[in-house]
Amino acid sequence: MEPLARAADRLGIFRDQILWYAETASTNDLAAAMAERGVPEGRVVVANAQSAGRGRHGRSWASPPGAGLYVSTVLRPPERALPLLTIAAGVAVAEGIQAAAGLTADVKWPNDVYAHGRKVAGILAEASSSHAAGAIQHVVVGAGINVMPAAYPAEIANRATSLEAELGRTVDRGLLLAEYLCALAARYLDLQEGRGDAVVRAWRARAASMLGRRVQWDAPGATRDGVALDIDETGALVVRTAAGPMRVTAGEVRWV
Ligand code: BTN
Predict the structure, then answer these.
(1) Does the CA dihedral 32-38-42-47 come out positive or negative?
(2) 0.85 surpassed by pTM
């Protein structure tokens, strides 16, 4: 039986909602267009390749055919689920990797996933509030997981890796998709039902390699730095600085 069929009972909102494409520009864009047209929560868009895969901060995401898992989900989160959504997605990617490939994956704030010190996956969550007075209509949660070694852009080549490069064996992308979606369904349910503390604990347990390290970030008019201590219940990074503890809520932090 196919991994997705075997996992059917654990797929929750994603069950029977998965669409596979040979290639698309960006699964996030396709999922967002579907969300605008009113598809139900839980729609999943997966592509074998992306011609214009997007990363955070306007970067591109290398998406050659078959080299990665490129997947986007449409969520319509209640208010209480919003603050920790990307944190939950990072945890779900790490849990999916562990369940499907047996590789321990770490998380790095806000939502990168690392294996053996190199980035193996990233998340791009994009919210739409295009209609009623700023209320969030939907969030597209996109995840890119490097499965096979590929020609990564030069600027990230020494910081990126893939599951197969780390494991020295092949990884079943169908199983990886199934386990990621099962983990995301469960973590999203945690948020919907007010168990954000469980999500934060799961994230913290995978963040040991990051907590205690120095970080730098750009604040309005200044570059700040300090030591990453934890995340709080809103998903903000808590940093010890010379001026006392600070919360970093957005933007890019550099790990130094
Ligand atoms: C990052 O910069 O770390 C986030 C990368 C997110 C890439 C994924 S691949 C599937 C989805 N579609 C996109 O265009 N981007 C996300």
Answers:
(1) negative
(2) yes
